[in-house]
Amino acid sequence: MRVLGIDPGLRNLGWGVIEVEGSRLSHVANGICHSTGKDLAVRLLSLHSQLTDVVARYAPEEAAIEQTFVNKDGAGTLKLGQARGIALLVPAQAGLVIGEYAPNQVKKTVVGVGHAEKCQVEHMVRLQLPGVEIAGADAADALAIAICHAHQSRAAGGLAAALRKAAS
Amino acid sequence: MRVLGIDPGLRNLGWGVIEVEGSRLSHVANGICHSTGKDLAVRLLSLHSQLTDVVARYAPEEAAIEQTFVNKDGAGTLKLGQARGIALLVPAQAGLVIGEYAPNQVKKTVVGVGHAEKCQVEHMVRLQLPGVEIAGADAADALAIAICHAHQSRAAGGLAAALRKAAS
Description:
Two copies of one chain form a homodimer.
Chain A: E1 2-7, E2 12-21, E3 24-34, H1 40-58, E4 62-66, H2 74-93, E5 97-101, H3 103-110, H4 118-128, H5 137-167
Parallel strand pairs in A: 1-4, 4-5
Antiparallel strand pairs in A: 1-2, 2-3
Helix pairs in contact in A: 1-2, 3-5, 4-5
Binding site for Mg(2+) 1 (chains A, B): 7, 138
GO molecular function, one term (chains A, B): crossover junction DNA endonuclease activity
Active site (chains A, B): 7, 66, 138
């Protein structure tokens, strides 16, 4: 299974694609979609176009996205929301299953604790994806989200198998 | 010139298309794109698909969207932001010019005062678009936004003409 992780943002939208074969993870690609300028619609269009290209090029079968942290900065939340709308739309347009994970769930899955520092997350991403070259902090987060999804899916799959066994 | 007005929302996204010929406005169509269900990505995909159909069917040349009111409800702002991302993306994908207007600017242009009630806005929309049948409150707001854009464009056009005249 190939998983696309997305760390949404209006200026920098991180993405990372990993391959999952049983318990083995491997790195496929990662990067950051940038958008700049004053015109919000043009920036959203650019993010949509760049992320659509990523999906077309790496053909992921599932996607995972970070649940956005809502804070008191309403204008910031709105900006992020608009970018997140695009980040959800693109995999939905490609018919992908999309998992959503809270930031502390991602950290807990990848590092083992929910309050891990960013550098710990990146360290564990490097350990779990040997040889990976990371395009930047947002791409590292996106890879972590993809890894989280892989573990959650495997856990869900393992549970399903256990239930099937129990029922038989 | 044909203008598409959009009142963004995740559950109900209002839209209205008007025709502008000099100082004469006429109604083309209006409606509401609905999205329901638990899956956010599916809802955004549905809004994108419905609004894309509207643009394809009525072929507007310009678009106008309400600037979102940011309040202290972070979760609500995030939801609205995600829907607004789609509402901006669709006209941008069609290559339309997009105007953004604050709610009180829309009211001031359509009713004459920035603190007008919703019913006054709908009343003035009916007066300026004779014979219009309005699909609901969100569609009325969308028509008001389109009317605001028509007036602003005309004002900008008039100003440009005056400047050209002054320069000649």
